[in-house]
Design brief:
Order of helices and strands: HEEEHEHEHEHHEHEHEEH
Number of helices: 9
Shape: globular
Number of domains: 1
Helix content: 25-40%
Strand content: 15-25%
Bound molecules: zinc ion
Largest sheet: 8 strands, parallel
Radius of gyration: 18 Å
Mean pLDDT: 94
Length: 253
């Protein structure tokens, strides 16, 4: 399997998903707006539903990150962790029903200062605004049996700001979310997958139990504050993939 391959269909990942627990990374579950620049962070609701069905039919069930990092053996029990970065409303609207149908739950990493706001960190670079869950919506997410984690206060690149600022982003976001929602915040997600040894140690010092990166791979033990993930993305609609989709066969060319 090619390293950094995106998870689209289960079959090419069957062996890898046996070696350890896949922690799958999603952002937005919606049709990509025409003007959106960051294509890779959208999956359509239809594609997402298909993936959930395929995982379910493949015998997979979701576990929490706490349960995941307690496992250190091959993934014989077919466990999977679903994660969403940023707290997009599209996840609540378009992903949660498909997850519920499959009996799955997930964690969503929230940007503490932007509750009910938008992806300001991308909008400054000309990206299309995307609405983030407000407090009531996060409560709906939690009430459905899902979890939340911290994705900092403002979504900075933590290795590029001062240690004091990084500490504030990591520590205060935990406290803000705990006070707001009355649940322990035990899990962290590095914005842009950006971290350094110092940033990682701050995350530990703040009391987080796990932290996810955008490094590629499955969980088979290691540092729970540097958990690899696999990004999900539909196959691009080139001719080979359209052929495969329509016929269910591998193209012979
Ligand atoms: Zn993010």
């Amino acid at each position: 399997m090619k390293k950094n391959a995106h998870f689209a269909d289960l079959s090419p990942f069957a062996n890898l998903f046996h070696e350890g627990v896949p922690v799958i990374c999603y952002h937005k579950v919606a049709r990509k707006p025409l003007r959106a620049k960051l294509r890779g962070i959208y999956v359509t609701p239809r594609f997402f539903r298909r993936q959930m069905r395929e995982l379910r039919e493949g015998g997979f069930s979701t576990i929490t990150l706490d349960e995941c990092v307690a496992l250190r053996a091959p993934n014989d029990g077919k466990k999977i962790v679903l994660t969403f970065d940023d707290g997009s409303v599209t996840v609540l609207k378009n992903a949660m029903p498909a997850m519920a149908d499959a009996g799955f739950s997930a964690i969503n990493y929230l940007v503490a200062d932007l509750s009910g706001g938008c992806n300001a960190w991308d909008v400054v670079n000309g990206e299309v605004p995307d609405r983030l869950m407000d407090e009531a919506q996060v409560r709906d997410w939690l009430a459905a049996g899902n979890e939340i984690g911290s994705h900092t206060r403002t979504h900075p690149r933590l290795s590029r700001i001062s240690p004091e600022q990084a500490k504030e982003e990591i520590f205060a976001s935990k406290k803000i979310l705990e006070d707001r929602f009355g649940v322990p915040i035990r899990h962290f997600c590095y914005p842009y997958g950006d971290f350094s040894p110092r940033v990682r140690d701050l995350v530990e010092e703040a009391g987080y139990v796990t932290a996810v990166t955008t490094e590629w791979g499955v969980w088979g033990g290691g540092d729970p504050l540097l958990v690899n993930r696999i990004g999900a993305r539909a196959h691009s609609l080139n001719f080979r993939n359209v052929f495969r989709r329509l016929t269910g066969r591998k193209p012979a060319w």
